Hints:
alpha/beta, six-stranded parallel β-sheet, two-stranded antiparallel ribbon
Amino acid sequence: MGMSWAYGGSEENDAIRVIHRALDLGVTLFDTAEMYGPYKNEELLGKALKGRREQAVIATKFGFRIGERGIEGLDGSPENVRRVAEASLQRLQTDVIDLYYQHRVDPQVPIEDTVGAMSDLVRAGKVRYLGLSEANADTLRRAHAVHSITALQSEYSLWERGIEESILPALRELGIGLVPFSPLGRGYLTGKLGTPSEWPETDYRHKDPRIAGENFARNQVIVDEVKAVAALHGATPGQVALAWLLSRGEDIVPIPGTRRISYLEENLASVQLVLTPEDLERLDRIARHDVGPRYGQEMMRMVQR
């Protein structure tokens, strides 16, 4: 996402170099969406994977109504399911999408209708596996009854653990994997984010209540704890944040985004970091810290439906 939208973007050639380095290092899962840009990120990934498609698992997402003014609302209609899939295949320069997510659940369309149309794409050979994003436990069960759901994408990290009460147990009951986005707290947990005054005006994080205004400094206690654990292992805070997620189970595959090769390599090294029971207990206490909502009111209404 960050290569084309939300955090200032990247030069195309620089972004492609990062993707190629990821492939060289054994990264296989690449996550994009129609709305990132819109459209630009899928086009970028299609260019980057040209000639190397067989090395990659491509995940993309549909679910928003996009007009001349940008994002205009949600659209989980069967017609949009099919329309976006065809357009995404073209932009990605591929004949099949490996993992096709509904980006946000549309309350105006029964999930059975949306997933039914998605399953038609599987039968047609245009999609391999289906996913949902930010769905609640009831919606997951209803969707899974129509067609096997492979993965749920939702925000999950050391400072966002809202899925643990009902959603994560439902995933494990149904055998659905979890793909946590923003596993580094939109960069905050790395301790390298700088202050909001240093970010471009277009940076999406200006809208994040957890790191906007006074909350940026108030939540520094979280980063301080992550840094302290990192120091015990000669690691970085970002590596600790990712290692914590990896310790939660083999059914959890975080997707840290980056625009730099150095951060890519740093993130990948987290798979070698083994946290002790004492480390995990210390990090678990972070969940008791009140960091504020992860979105504004309008966006919060779109999650865990």
